[in-house]
TrEMBL record:
Organism of origin: Pigmentiphaga soli
DUF1330 domain sequence ranges: 2-95
Listed SUPFAM superfamilies: Dimeric alpha+beta barrel (SSF54909)
Protein name (Swiss-Prot/TrEMBL): DUF1330 domain-containing protein
InterPro entries per the UniProt record, alphabetical: Dimeric_a/b-barrel, DUF1330
Length: 99
């Protein structure tokens, strides 16, 4: 079953955050992931309006989504968005329904 990374974030330092964001597509692809939404127009229908960037990434399985997040490559890239509060992120993985 497919699984999805659902992330919402705010970019506080665009230069540091870009160092992270530029690496993510290749890392995700190495785990069979496909970016479905990354930035772009959005509308908050309910909840806090703190976050200004939304990302949806599809993976072939929950295991591959987890492996990508915990990989050395992803964690190394993520240090750029964590450095000096360059970005704040909430990230969840959700498994799709069995169709």
């Amino acid at each position: 079953m497919s699984a999805y990374w659902l992330a919402r974030s705010i970019v506080n330092d665009p230069v540091l955050y870009k160092r992270y964001a530029d690496q993510v597509p290749d890392i995700v692809a190495a785990y069979g992931g496909r970016i479905l939404a990354r930035g772009g127009k959005f509308e908050i229908l309910e909840g806090p309006e703190k976050f200004t960037r939304f990302v949806v990434i599809e993976f072939p399985s929950l295991e591959q989504a987890r492996a990508c997040f915990h990989s050395e490559r992803y964690q190394s890239a993520a240090r750029w968005r964590r450095q000096d509060g360059a970005g704040e992120v909430e990230l969840a993985i959700v498994e799709s329904l069995d169709a």
